Amino acid sequence: MKLPYFEHRAPDSLEEAIATLAALGSDVKLLAGGQSLLPAMRYRLSQPSVLLDLSRIEDLRLKDDALRSGRIDAMSTHAQFAHQNDPTPLGRLMAAHAQQIAFPAVRTRGTVGGSVVHADPAGDWPLLFLALGAQVELSGQRGTRRMALSSFISGPMQTDIALDEILTAVLLDVSALGLTHWGRAKLMHRAGEYAVSSAVAVRRAGGEWSCWIGAIEAGPAPMTQCAELLRSHSSLKHKDMLACAYEDVRAVCPESGQAAVHRHAVNLTRAIAQALETQ
Amino acid sequence: MQQNATSPVHASTADHHGQMIGQRVARREDARHLAGAAAFIADLNAPGCLEIAFVRSPVAHGILKGVDIAPDVPIDMVRHAEHFAHLPPIRANLLRDGYNGAPYPLLATGKVRFVGEPIALVMAPTRAQAEQWAEQIVPRIEALPAVIDARDEWEHPTIPLHEDLSSNLIMRTQRSVGEFDHIVQEAGMSGLQHVTRDFKMARVLASPLEGRGVMALRDKATGAIHLHLSTQRPHLIRSFVAEQIPALRESDLRVIVPDVGGGFGTKSNLYPEEVLLTALAMELDHPVRWIEDRYEHFVASNHARQHDQRITAYFDGDGRIHAVDATFIVDGGAYCAKTSTGAIEANMAANIMLGPYDIQHYRYEAISLYTNKSPMGPYRGVGRPGGCFAMERIIDEVAHELGMDPVETRRRNLIPSSAMPYVTATGLHYDSGDYLEAVNAAEQRVLERWNRDAPPGRRAGIGYAMLVEQAGHGSVEWFRRGSPTVYGHEAARATLNGDGTLEIDVGTLAHGQGHATSYAQIASELTTLPLDAIRIRQGDTAATPYGMGTVASRSLVMGGGAVAQACRMIVDKARRIAAANLSDTADALRLENGVLHGAQGQLTLAEIALITSVQIHKLPKDIEPGMSVQAFYRPSVETGTFSYAVHAARVEVDEDTGFVDITDYLVVEDCGTVVNPLIVDGQIMGGVAQGIGQALYEAMRYNADGQPETVTFGDYALPSAMEVPRIDIIHLHTPSPFSVFGVKGMGEGGSVPPPAAIANAVRDALLAEDIAVNCTPITPDYLLDQILARTEGQ
After folding, report:
1. What percent of chain B has pLDDT above 90?
2. What is the interface pTM, i.e. ipTM, of the complex?
3. Which of B101, B443, B465, B556 could disulfide-link to B392, CB 3.0 to 4.6 Å?
């Protein structure tokens, strides 16, 4: 389980990284924390000949005003969000979310961009940013483009990123920056594990609700009926919320067993209940 | 008498005053480990060392047709089975009728029988290079159907995995004891009820922090082979390796054991890698080393404990159990590992099942089978976790059938202290114990501190489990089991130096047990020398007397007995020398702080050591020079010591997720005289953590083709510090009449009852819905599926 042989390149600038990527193409894997990639390489599930390490690129690191500008640079670490104490609802949501990602060692190295591009169905950042309606920014020699995260993630562990592109930032709009209500619930069989069930519920600045669950086979999915129910009713009975959650969950994981469906539905209602409490 | 935990004392400040036994002395070996300054096999430096990687079978069962080697792999760095054709396979023997042993090849020939079985090895200057070459060696295997379920195989036998055997049965033993048949026949007439449950325990493995490791080289100065090994039994492994290699004599092989990062039994068997590297060191001019990585530990180290049980208890309306019927089917894996096998796992479980209960009518069947999985070996408890789960779960079922309190049901079945010493239905000789006192102490603590209140959506439950821990057993027990290696003694050599330091060489092998501290406490107690003047040495066959290593909860009884005996011999000799020099009688001298005081004068132990070495003119002619003695301790009663414990767990079950939280855990434990309570508490806590793993998380899972699906800690879940609650420990002290100071072995016990105690607590929490808790690990889905089915039915 030693790492296979590879060449390690760690450019100082984004331009250099983009040029290297363009020159080497499919031989390269981007190293953005490596908390999933390096174990996969040890198990020989991935054998890139070059690792292009993004950790020395100043431009890709977290900026102080990220939660006001809405620009979250790709190499921001989980730990940076876990440790920040921004008092806004978004700041508190990001902190609570980051604090439950794996363990301190993983949080210190793992990055937001790495997590989003990895697109693990149980990943923490894809779920949260989908619920926040985020966009991603992708840069390559052909230029820079932006697209909705919901389009970018095309399936479990699959994204729309091109071979010559680097995900440089996740972008939040004003409705996410000004969110008023948030709730999240993550079920882990053991502390620090990948979620068995994960749910996020937020009410954005415009009053729109967004409810998502993760840790299902196909990847994070919107719970649209729950969002609609929350929009249209000012007071809700737990029983009705649960029934609605059941319908939403069943629709996105029709193959799952009863226990899994129940757990997702209950977990989603816990996230929603928390969101309703944080008035 | 009860004694609660207090804070540790430090070795430097602990004044012995003849009272070192029972002190909470902080472990002397910890500083080295905490500073990262310890030395494991991987830390050893050997110039020119070649690192080894193994080519292992990717297929569970198949015909091995050969291997394809890529052209850039240097062929002279590769070794196949043919290269070692002069070496026999490993054969584990059991001197019992009906035992069908199957030889364990060093490297696979003809067939492969489990994923991970070694096929070839590659040497390279670095492990990364060796792995890269190993990847380019591809075995050609024609796959055969895999045997993966032991009960299926027992009920519907398929083709034998081993050509020279007629079936996949390793061993089947059955016995009916007392008037079992009569009681069962008459059960209806005598108004006995019965309850039957099928229990399953998943396959688990030890997962020590440090995997196995081997480094072998020829020592140029002596010509001997030095085998540096992460093992629990240096002397026995030396004998076994020498047996495997015809050209190697024991005197030409030295086994040296540096720090060992945990073993829990998994490092006590003989493994192919150990023999192969020794053979390589004999033929090469280079040291060779193999460090087991975590993937290899998952597939190539022994697994443990996979049980499929059917248990029936026959009981009366008062909760008194009259007879027990038990069938244990153990999944033994592909080969019989030397020396502990699947057969031993099944036999042990059947043998110890009755535990603290006075049940004399018993029928059992212990069955072990070959499957296409990693061979079964020992892991902290060997058979006991399975036997304990069977008994402690079924007694709760008896209580539930009667609507009785499970604690009361236990009380009604306990062996009374007045019956000690007591011979069980299976012939175990319990030495001492007051089981009722332990049950009462546990119940009292639980009633004082715990309740069954839980927040909405959660359900609380409390469960108990008891254990009688056979430990420190001598030759009678090992012979009875049919072990070809009959353990029965330990040796210690004590040497008193002219500067007043005492060196003690032992044949046991601490790998986390703290012998450097607890043995020194025994030596200090008897010699009155301070702890820092006492050095304990182990783990070198050239420097320590032949011993059995550290397994089977025996070291403090046997090794401690030998240390005590050697120290007494040193003190006796010192007294005789001092008496002659001080014109006093030996018995009249008073030993205090390392000084013998007489009526006329005094001599320090250091001065007496000098008399025996370089002041010989002061040594009476009838006393042999030298101050080094070797003691061989063999207990007068050889059936073992019997510690016992009551574990209690409080759990909360989330009704909506099926998740179980252990909120509280209590251990009431009696291991006789405690030498170091801090170490004993540590052993208990570590054991309970492992037991929690088996109860709720750990399972080595295979798919239908025999592919292991859990080969990372991401998939094979161990409990972390977040899942292990604070463990409350109450010590009782009933000294063994058969050991030095009345100590009893206790190293394994902590890990044995937790699966049963936790399962009983979960059952208690969900009793209203009659949710079954008949397997480990108790997964959220197992519970939630049942809860939802009950809700739907309503």
Report:
1. 93
2. 0.95
3. B465
